[in-house]
TrEMBL record:
Residues 2-59 form the HTH lysR-type domain. Belongs to the LysR transcriptional regulatory family. PROSITE patterns: HTH_LYSR. This is DNA-binding transcriptional regulator, LysR family. It comes from Chryseobacterium oranimense. The keyword DNA-binding applies.
Length: 306
């Protein structure tokens, strides 16, 4: 089935004469416009525009299609505007992408207070950056910056990746091994313990191990659980080790349910960014969510000024 957004994009290209102009009028990225157009051309089975430099010149079939869909699209847009005025004007919907653990630790507690509709999306960071660029997401929380010129990144906090364990882990034994026998023996000590990992990526563990021991870990975690918050709950049982961001277990460490075992010989820190398109219809809603994140995380973490 054809996506009606393809027709809306087709009309915008026809009216503006450029992919950039269409992107600006629709508040989506140029790659998103290109994707819509190529999808529509594949669906109808013929070229709709000839590309001459930066100009998009409609083909004869493109002109026929525009004459066929222009009026129906205009009517649908009028219906949409009237519908929004009567039922949606005060409740716009924005889509936000982040990792599951970040949502649980920060935004989840405020969802019921939001004065607008919200769709939360979980996924890998490269995927979220791509969806932001294409207009599928309106805001993402990410430790990685993309390269799209349509996206701006704002550093707002940082996370330190640390080694934590259950309260029954013999921390003194580890420190004595590290201080008296050195880093290689400390690595062997750690490998003898039970380890937790997640079904997602193991990037935190890999980065921590490479930074401190010079290579990737040559062992597999004993227990694989759904997410990092699951790991924290498991560690409260008293045993086991894991490498996780410090902000996820701050309260558990302060309460003595989980121990901070080691920060590493070299501290591993990630800067956290807000990512959003430079042009958006939802700036006030995005600013509202940014404020909630700063409220939860900003006062406890150093903000990198980049």
């Amino acid at each position: 089935m054809v996506n009606l957004e393809w027709y809306r994009t087709f009309k915008a290209i026809y009216k503006t004469g450029t992919l950039t102009g269409a992107a600006d009028s629709l508040f989506i990225s140029q790659p998103g416009v290109s994707l819509h157009l190529s999808s529509l051309e594949a669906y109808v089975g013929y070229k709709l525009f000839d590309r001459t430099g930066r100009k998009m010149i409609p083909t004869e079939r493109g002109k026929v299609l525009f004459n066929a869909v222009s009026e129906p699209i205009a009517k649908l847009e009028d219906v949409e505007k009237n519908f929004q005025k009567s039922t949606e004007k005060l409740t716009p919907t924005i889509s936000v992408g982040m990792c599951f653990e970040t949502f649980q630790t920060t935004l989840e507690q405020y969802v019921s207070t939001l004065p607008f509709n919200l769709i939360i999306s979980f996924g890998e960071y490269p995927e979220m950056l791509d969806q932001l660029d294409k207009g599928i997401l309106d805001l993402i929380i990410t430790p990685k910056k993309g390269i799209s010129p349509n996206i701006e990144h704002e550093a707002f906090s940082s996370e330190q990746i640390i080694l934590v364990g259950g309260k029954d882990v013999d921390t003194e034994s580890f420190r004595e091994t590290l201080d008296t026998k050195g880093i290689e023996h400390a690595e062997e000590w750690l490998k003898q313990e039970k380890w937790y990992g997640t079904t997602g990526d193991m990037e935190h563990l890999f980065q921590f191990w490479i930074m401190n021991f010079g290579h990737k870990p040559n062992f597999r975690p004993n227990y694989i659980v759904p997410n990092l918050n699951s790991i924290i709950r498991c560690l409260k049982g008293g045993t086991g080790l894991a490498v996780i961001p410090n902000f996820l277990c701050k309260n558990e460490i302060e309460n003595g349910d989980v121990k901070m075992i080691w920060e590493g010989e070299k501290k591993l820190e990630n800067t956290l960014y807000f990512g959003c398109r430079k042009k958006t219809n939802y700036q006030s809603e995005i600013d509202h969510i940014k404020g909630l994140f700063r409220k939860v995380m900003g006062k406890n973490n150093h903000v990198a000024h980049l």
